[in-house]
């Protein structure tokens, strides 16, 4: 059953169209992450799903019921906000029970629900405190408790980890994911952080300029980005995208980077027959940094594809060494073993994983293959 | 700054106290002058209140005789009762009016800026003007009663200004008109500082507007409420010009207030000692409001520092 269906939804403020013809179907139990740069419309979309904002056109179904005209409280949703939005004058317990109080849930039932959620989130000792007496991580837990206690059809998270420091964010990220696995809730989660999207989502909707660019599971989004925007947004550092030309040679396809230059790079492609119609035309060559490694790395059992490339800069991070280099004169990033440190300014040999190349149409910016 | 002066070659750095002279002059001279006035004249008044001074100050010691005389006088008793009634009614009603205006203005209505200015405008008017205008409006032969009579409702009666029991309420009305805009401005600032996400969360939780105000917004306003109450109480206790212009303490002495008693004793009956005693009593009433407030502020600040 689709927990949430969004059809042909658009939102316009005066002349500004912030959401254009959005269509999403989210299955029950899915952890969907809406990710995109700020201003892409993801928070507006979440507010519309919550009923805090109205769409200009289109329908929203929650649990098979059209909710366009249903007020937020009757949509069977719960929401966690970036600012936590705890009620400052109430204790943690009152914050959690406020919704039940509004729905006239009997007292005994409220107490049982609070005890349950407090145990799940390990906030039993905080129940008597006011939000001002809590740390950021504790407030985050209380905000989640307030949502969990409702046991809704749909959880909405609006950048819930953005106000936490880096270490706590990683912890809470795992905790939310664990929570999802334990209670099997349907979650729509908004973030601008592509790592949160990759680590937590069962499906990612990448948004840009009011449109869903791609809606797929994290591996697909990462491996086959639908267009150049997705390729450059997902991944840290993002996919290298270099202008190139596709040629045909001995019945095979060859992609040429920096054609005509003395350091031009020619790579034979296998299994990219879908791009045959682009032979003799310009393409955008996309390759993830981890697909460019030190020359001694073997990506497969085939003969390695090696190129010599000048090194611009070396950034050791401990776990790996990031290298900025030039392929056919175009800048690119490589992710190589931590113990290898090429010399900036000199040339070094790099192995390429040519099985995981993406080719994009430079005009439409869409993935060709 | 001292580093900059030190590394600049060829010019000797000015001594610290010379460079900071403007700051000292700006802060300490006005502070000392005003403190000297306030403290010395307060002490002077307290001393006078223990002397048998009448038309001019004289030395001598009469103990608490001036105080017992003032406290026993009917004038003071009425003034004190009036102050209790006027003070509480005015503070509660002006805060309530201000809060209601602020909540109504907070509904994102059109013309908010214009309305806000209109509600705040009475604050810019002197109390004497307020008192005079309201004395005309409330005068049965000139103001509202006459207007309604002229419209044809001849049995309408609104003569509180000349009614011994109700006259004090005319002062309450005029004072509310004057200062509820001030309460509104403070409350509106408080309402606007409530995080919009909190309201959204409450909507999703299923709270209606009344419950949102009662359980979430209004509880967050209570520090502002205390500030409003204390400021209005100070005003209520020292009210003089408004009553002087509106009723001049009348009819009879029905709307007498402590400040009028002081004025009456000192400058009309030439009983400086008793007038000073009444003034000191007013100071004590004021301190009864301000000392708890200062203590509360101190505790709040301590708590904020340790949170």
UniProtKB/TrEMBL annotation, chain A:
One of its GO terms (molecular function) is ABC-type transporter activity. PROSITE patterns: ABC_TRANSPORTER_1 (PS00211), ABC_TRANSPORTER_2 (PS50893). InterPro entries: AAA+_ATPase, ABC_transporter-like_ATP-bd, ABC_transporter-like_CS, ABC_transpr_MalK-like, ABC_transpr_MalK/UgpC-like, Mo/tungstate-bd_C_term_dom, NA-bd_OB-fold, OB_MalK-like. GO terms for cellular component: ATP-binding cassette (ABC) transporter complex, substrate-binding subunit-containing. Coiled coil: none annotated. SMART domains: AAA (SM00382). GO terms for biological process: carbohydrate transport. The keyword NAD does not apply. The keyword ATP-binding applies. Residues 4-234 form the ABC transporter domain. It is a peripheral membrane protein. It is found in: Cell inner membrane. Keywords: ATP-binding, Nucleotide-binding, Transport. Belongs to the ABC transporter superfamily. Involved in beta-(1-->2)glucan export. Transmembrane domains (TMD) form a pore in the inner membrane and the ATP-binding domain (NBD) is responsible for energy generation. This is ABC transporter ATP-binding protein. It comes from Bradyrhizobium frederickii.
